[in-house]
Amino acid sequence: MSRDAQKKLAAEKALEFVEEGSVVGVGTGSTVAFFIDGLARMKGRIEGAVSSSEQSTRQLQQHGIPVFDLNAVGPLKLYVDGADECDPWNRLIKGGGAALTREKIIAAASDKFVCIIDAAKQVELLGQFPLPVEVVPMARSLVARRIVEMDGQPVWREGVVTDNGNWILDVHHWRIQDPVSLEAKLNQITGVVACGLFAARPADVVIIGDTIRAIRG
Ligand code: 5RP
Q1: Does the CB atom of residue 179 touch ligand 1 within 6 A?
Q2: Domains of the chain, with CATH numbers?
Q3: Distances (CA, A) of 159 to 66, 102, 116, 203
């Protein structure tokens, strides 16, 4: 089965977690685009969505789904998003679409994080996919030097400006043995806004194609 077909199946399965009358947290990317198309079919039965990017906001609004500010709705029951890599403990690398900071905020504000992926995203050890780190622009070189000291190889994603007005460093060649501790260390570098490791708050449910793998929650 093609990767797109698997993404679509996962997105359809995730619709089963959406509760009537709720506000749904919505991620970013090609897998989530399938989820938003599915959500449109039930738009009369949900109150609306909180979106993690301008891209997803546009798609939601094109479908006539109301988009709310997270501050206006408080905690969410459900967040649905894709990932770039997923390990056996539901810890993720995200941010290939540069939306990692808002994604992390919505994940933190949600009771249940359902991650939708195709099988190729499953890994034993995180780090083959370059780890995105969002940085305040003036701190780009400073953060890059700190990452080199940590044996990472940061590459500036030149030309990309995040929805928050920041820049992205993609860190290559890290085999991430302890994602929780690396996430904490990266968060402590001055100038880092967020890193793409979702380890302290992993997904609660991972859907791979049409198969649900639940470990937490
Ligand atoms: C965006 C993300 C996406 O979830 C991730 O890049 C996966 O994207 P896709 O569903 O297109 O494979 O983290 O910042």
Answers
A1: no
A2: 3-123+200-214 (3.40.50.1360), 131-196 (3.30.70.260)
A3: 31, 20, 28, 30
Options 16, 54, 103, 158, the catalytic residue? 103
**What pairing do the DSSP bridges indicate for beta strands 167-172 and 131-135?**
antiparallel
Burial class (CB in 10 A: 0-12, 13-18, 19+), 138: exposed
Q: Smallest Cα–Cα separation from 17: which of 154, 105, 111? A: 111
> Going by C-beta distance under 8 Å and a sequence separation of 6 or more, which residues neighbour residue 45?
20, 21
Q: Which two structure tokens, joined as six digits, stand for 200?
A: 């302290």
* Tokens at 148, concatenated: 């080199």
Its pTM stands at: 0.96
103 in catalytic set? yes
State whether the beta carbon of 83 lies less than 6 angstroms from ligand 1. yes
Going by C-beta distance under 8 Å and a sequence separation of 6 or more, which residues neighbour residue 141? none
Contact in structure between 27 and 52 (CB atoms under 8 Å):
yes
pLDDT at 213: 87
pLDDT of residue 74: 86
